[in-house]
Amino acid sequence: MAIRSLLSLSLLLGSVFGALAFDLHRKDNLAVYWGQDGAGTQQPLSFYCADNTIDTIPLAFLYIFRGKGGDPVIDFGNSCADWNDPVFSGTDLAKCPSMAKDIRACQAKGKIITLSLGGATGQVGFSSDSQAIAFADQIWNMFLGGQSFTRPFGNVVLDGVDLDIESGTAAHYAAFVNRIRSHAAGKSKKYYITAAPQCPFPDAYIGDALNQASFDAVYVQFYNNYCGLNHPSDYNFNTWDKWAKTQSANKNIKVYIGAPGDAQAAGEGYVDLETLAQYASDAQAKYSSFGGVMLWDADTAYTNGRFDKGIKTAMRASALKLFPDQASDGSSNTTHVSSATTAKPSSMSDSPHEAEGSSEVQKAPHEILVKEPRGLSRFFKF
């Protein structure tokens, strides 16, 4: 079936599906970053949870690991940041009570809300395993299942963390992840740990940790690099799929296709909806590690003709076609789909760059609000 037909069919399917609990095993999940006001019209978090389009929202970003008073610093643009909201005494850590309500509303709809650490201009990194472990304790107590007097979202418990590390040093992140895992062990609540490596393999900042610690998913940034979606001959999902099955610490890890939400969301790499849907449909059929699509970011995707909804419904329709006997009818929380093998469209050849590393310079694609004098902000694109 042509992708255009899949897009049309998918519009008829939305009413069939209820609000399902998040299922990591699906091949049509959509992760969308929120917090950096990419199009200048960012709405509150709960706005993007109003329908069944997005499954996972990483909050972007906790961009300073050790700020004033030794506490981290968060910046969610016009929704909550130290320059426009009250902070905990002696720190630059913002208090975000309004976001707490939104997080609850999203989680009630079965969405997974995680905290993304880093970003393009993040002040991040560790000097030792012990420092990484101490920071993991801090994150657990401030945002996850622990306790602290400095919890930006109050008693709201996030669903995990995401590592979008694009600066600093690569060392000691495995110790951080393993410490979070140790805190989560035995808990009734499931906690997720993801990362957002750039497509050149191995990733310069998080590659070692991906081999040494267990991650649930990687949101590979197939943009702003030679292996981006706009370079089909060098597109290397096959390399990441091979890594997932042979080198990853978690052999069941899911690999997502990361894409810009519109042409302004990245320096390069944006492709139209039909092209992205074809990439996703091909990956659903060919790669058992495929878990879905990641978009940067919620604001840009929403204002780009609901690009987010378009790719979600296309993935859903394609999955129903490929795996009709395993598709959810809306009455169950779980849809498990297996891999199949089909011919790859000639326009989407696998990369000749196999598992060896690349000498390409990785550009930093994500945006982050860089502080001006208190009360002002501006965007820097990378």
Automatic annotation (TrEMBL):
* UniProt xrefs under PROSITE patterns: GH18_1, GH18_2
Domain (GH18) ranges: 28-318
The signal peptide here is 1-21
User: Where is this chain compositionally biased, Polar residues type?
Assistant: 328-350
Q: Which UniProt keywords apply?
A: Carbohydrate metabolism, Chitin degradation, Chitin-binding, Glycosidase, Hydrolase, Polysaccharide degradation, Signal
* EC number in record: 3.2.1.14
Report the Pfam families cross-referenced here: Glyco_hydro_18
Could you state one GO biological process linked to this protein? chitin catabolic process
Per the record, GO CC terms?
Answer: extracellular region
What molecular functions are annotated in GO for this chain?
Answer: chitin binding; endochitinase activity
What this protein catalyses is: Random endo-hydrolysis of N-acetyl-beta-D-glucosaminide (1->4)-beta-linkages in chitin and chitodextrins
UniProt xrefs under Gene3D superfamilies: Glycosidases
Question: Where are the residues of the annotated region Disordered?
Answer: 325-369
The family annotation for this protein states:
Belongs to the glycosyl hydrolase 18 family.
PANTHER family linked: ENDOCHITINASE (PTHR45708:SF49)
Under which name does UniProt file this protein?
chitinase
Q: Which organism is it from?
A: Meripilus lineatus
Lineage of the native species? Eukaryota, Fungi, Dikarya, Basidiomycota, Agaricomycotina
